[in-house]
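This section describes the prediction task in plain terms. A model, or a person checking by hand, is given the sequence of a single protein chain and must write out its three-dimensional structure as a string of C-alpha cells. No templates, partner chains or ligands are provided. The sample shown here is typical of the held-out split.
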Amino acid sequence: MLFLPMSQVECSAAVTGEVVTVPSAYINKANILFVKDYSAGSQIGPYTGPKYLEPKLYPFIRKSPIAVRVFLPFYTLTGQMHCAKGKGVADVLDSGLRFFPMTNVEISPGDEPPTSFV
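The expected answer:
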C-alpha cells in the first residue's frame, strides 16, 4: 500500500496556523520523514509496561569514518562515509543499503557553489 488512509485528520497551515479538520485523507508513505509514538509505553523514562512488550536495544555496530568524494551525474557528495570494521567504501556501495551512511556532507550541484548538510 503506497498511501496511508487516515480519518478525522486535523491539518494546520505552517504559515498562517489555520487548522482545518477533514473526515479523511490519504498520506503518501514516501512523504513521511519521522514518526513519534505517543502511546503510553513510549514516554521518556523507565519502561513500566508488560515484560513481553519491553523495548529491545538497537544492535550497535561500530563504524569508522572514511573521507570520500562521491561523483554522481548532477552533483558531488564530499564527506565522511561510515564503514563497519574490516569493510571499505566499495563494500558500502555494493551493499543493499538504500542510503549512504555519511556525515559532514557537502553537496555540490553542477556549477553552483557547495551547500553543507549535517
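For orientation: Residues 3-52 form one domain.
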